[in-house]
Amino acid sequence: MKRGVLLAMLVLGGCATVTDIEQTLPTMSVISGKKPDAYAQCLVQQLSSTRRAPQIEPHKEGLRIIVPQKLTSNPTAVIDIEERSGGSSIKVYESMSNVPVRPGDIRKAATHCISG
After folding, report:
1. Residue 6 pLDDT > 50, yes or no?
2. Whole-prediction pTM value?
């Protein structure tokens, strides 16, 4: 059963591009007191135990983090961090946002880094 769910997740999420992921509704939209660099550093550190290193690039008034899938280098999530007065605005977009059994490590890391 677990292998079937994993295979289904890979098939459903394996072909998503950054553009495809960004066109979905955000699965999380929050504000943090941390600046974009500090939030991104925390997020990368939290994800390092479960995923390969994400790609970090400048985006608008902050940073964009592209998180790879667990088994491939294809993107599974895009996290936009924009600077605002006194901190950051964070939006998390996930490729399998409508799948209730998707891995929770991205959401857990994003939540941990809000104030942690």
Report:
1. no
2. 0.82
Q: How many helices (H) and strands (E) does the chain have?
A: 4, 5
- Assess contact for 77 and 21: CB atoms under 8 A: yes
**Gap between the Cα atoms of 24 and 5, Å rounded:** 22
Q: Quote the pLDDT of residue 95.
A: 87
Q: Rounded to an integer, what distance in angstroms lies between the CA atom of residue 116 and that of residue 79? A: 17
Number of structural domains the chain divides into: 1
Residue 85 has pLDDT above 80, yes or no: yes
Q: What is the pLDDT of residue 98?
A: 64
- Strand, helix or coil at 31? strand
Tell me which residue range forms the domain holding 25: 2-115
Q: The domain spanning residue 91 has which CATH number? A: 3.30.160
CA dihedral 21, 25, 27, 33 (to 10 degrees): 100
**3-state per-residue secondary structure call for 70-100:** CCCCCEEEEEEEEEECCEEEEEEEECCCCCC
